[in-house]
Amino acid sequence: VDLTTKGSAALDYEDVYTESSEQPLPVALGYLTFDGTQYLKFPDEAALDLTTWVIIDAVVKTDASALNNPAAIVAKNVDGDTCASPYNAYFLKQNNGQFQFATTADYGTRFLAVDTEDSVSSDWVRVTGVWSSSSDSRMGEGKMSLYVDGVLVGEKTQGDELLVTTGSLWVGKGCGNYFTGAIKELHVWGE
């Protein structure tokens, strides 16, 4: 599913949301910019319950003032639009200058954090998180992998199937944190 543009994607987002009110999300030269209060919300549907394998691929450029801020690029919330533990079924985010990719199974988070310093940049960076359950042999049976600009920077064994959730998919927001910067491409694939 290509989530980057309203109307041309298989899933349309409901609208642009901010902390205070709805306002247009700036679009410039083919990318979306986020000011740290805005996000896109895709309502829950079966196509977003990716329990066997997930690939999240994004080209992002973080605002220089927010390089070390925790901020979700994309997150699939577990329970409606609340932020109750375990928060997200899967997410791709930045935190303390590193990219992170995580999945949740059986209400316990299986977490992969990149330990490469300064992987978050104010330049365009492609970051890709890949996960497959132990029952899926197509993508490496039970592995989580994280790539920055096509280079493997972290890998972990994690094969439990993911939670089926009722939460929305958010772009530019996670539980309590907002992305500041631009997203040029964003793809979420899986089943």
Q: Notable features of this structure?
A:
single chain; 191 residues; seven-stranded antiparallel sheet; globular; 14 strands
Explain this structure to me?
Helix content is 0%, strand content 46%. With 191 residues, it is an all-beta fold.
List the helices and strands and how they pair.
Elements: E1 15-17, E2 27-28, E3 31-35, E4 39-42, E5 53-62, E6 71-77, E7 88-95, E8 98-105, E9 108-113, E10 125-132, E11 143-148, E12 151-157, E13 169-171, E14 180-190
Antiparallel strand pairs: 1-4, 2-3, 3-14, 4-13, 5-10, 5-14, 6-7, 6-13, 7-8, 8-9, 10-11, 11-12
Summarize the structure.
With 191 residues, this protein is mainly β. It is 0% helix and 46% strand.
Strand order, main sheet: write it out.
1-4-13-6-7-8-9
The biggest sheet, with number of strands, parallel, antiparallel or mixed sense and barrel status, is: 7 strands, antiparallel
- Beta-strand residue fraction: over 45%
Mean pLDDT: 75
Contiguous low-pLDDT stretches (5 residues minimum) are 1-13, 18-23
Structural class comes to mainly beta
Specify Rg, calculated over alpha carbons.
Answer: 15 Å
What is the total tally of β strands? 14
